[in-house]
Design goal:
The chain has ten helices and eleven strands. It has two domains: 3-158, Regulatory protein AraC (Jelly Rolls, Sandwich), CATH 2.60.120.280; 160-266, Orthogonal Bundle (Arc Repressor Mutant, subunit A). The chain has 267 residues and is an alpha+beta fold. A hairpin with a 2-residue loop joins strand 4 (48-52) and strand 5. Helices cover 46% and strands 21% of the residues. The chain has helices at 92-102, 112-126, 135-151, 162-174, 181-188, 192-203, 207-224, 229-235, 241-252, 256-266; strands at residues 3-6, 14-23, 38-45, 48-52, 55-59, 63-67, 73-76, 82-90, 107-109, 153-154, 158-159. Residues 1-13 have low confidence and may be disordered. The strands form two sheets. It has a seven-stranded antiparallel sheet, with helices on one face. A four-stranded antiparallel sheet has the order 7-4-5-11, with no helix packed on it.
Length: 267
């Protein structure tokens, strides 16, 4: 159901569009994660929560939420609820363009006319509905999508509960130095077991995995800037170079060197 739409005039970058129909049979649909590219979620029906970095966004029909490269995030569907939405992945140079259009806003509301045309574009793009002789029409729809995002009204978000937000803020500020979970639990005067329970309930991930995700995200950002792999490893809390390579390959399917080479070639 996924289809790549190549955009002449945008450095041959691509976007991928595909629909999702998720059910809230469990509190979460996915564990927290991040991508190397921009992701936009366009809600068609139902209500879900998008957890992006340390903020919760309530996504109603007609809203779109922007997730920037290396943002930790996941989607939470309420129990006994069905949600239909489109996922749009925007790569490389196009990613920066969408980030500028959204500005500091992450969640926006589309008016009814814009929503209909945007959903029509996503439906057509996701099913290969643009033929070789319809490139102009595809680009016209793409530019219209840009206009929709630029003109849309922002929607107010809400943070996590104050105590858990303070834990996330602490981890985000200190993930390079944290060696043991006990450091975090002691800092907040709670047990290690309760710390694990909070992370599982709020963002469906173990604290140690959250710390590793933040380290991996920061390491990728460093490598993308041209920093060598050893420096990126040591700069972000990984003391063992071999362990860093092993965990990187486990999470992303390639070695850090292969990933960095591919990213720098495509910049």
């Amino acid at each position: 159901m996924e289809n790549d739409v190549f955009l002449p005039g945008f450095n041959a970058e691509a976007i991928s569009v595909f629909p999702k129909r998720d059910y809230g049979d469990a509190p979460f649909n996915s564990g927290i994660h991040f991508h190397d590219f921009t992701e936009i979620l366009i809600n068609v029906s139902g209500v879900y929560e998008a957890l992006v970095e340390n903020t919760v966004y309530s996504c109603r029909p007609g809203t779109a939420v922007l997730i920037k490269p290396y943002d930790t995030h996941n989607v939470r569907i309420p129990p006994k609820t069905e949600c239909v939405y489109y996922v749009v992945w925007i790569y490389n140079g196009n990613s920066d363009l969408f980030s500028r259009l959204f500005g500091s806003d992450r969640l926006i509301t589309l008016d009814e006319k814009d929503e209909k045309r945007l959903v029509s574009f996503c439906e057509r793009a996701s099913t290969g509905g643009y033929g070789d002789n319809e490139k102009f029409e595809m680009l016209s729809d793409y530019f219209y999508m840009l206009t929709c995002f630029e003109n849309a009204a922002p929607v107010e978000s809400r943070p996590f509960p104050a105590f858990f937000r303070s834990i996330l803020d602490y981890v985000d500020a200190n993930f390079r130095e944290i060696k043991y979970l006990k450091e975090v639990s002691d800092h907040f005067g709670i047990s290690r077991h309760y710390l694990i329970k909070l992370f599982k309930e709020r963002i469906n991930i173990l604290p140690k995995d959250y710390v590793e995700l933040k380290r991996m995200s920061a390491a990728k950002t460093d490598m993308l800037s041209g920093m060598n792999i050893t420096e990126a490893c040591l700069n972000n809390g990984f003391c063992d170079y071999c362990y860093f390579i092993k965990r990187f390959k486990y999470r992303f399917g390639v070695t850090p060197k292969k990933w960095q080479t591919a990213q720098l070639v495509n910049k």
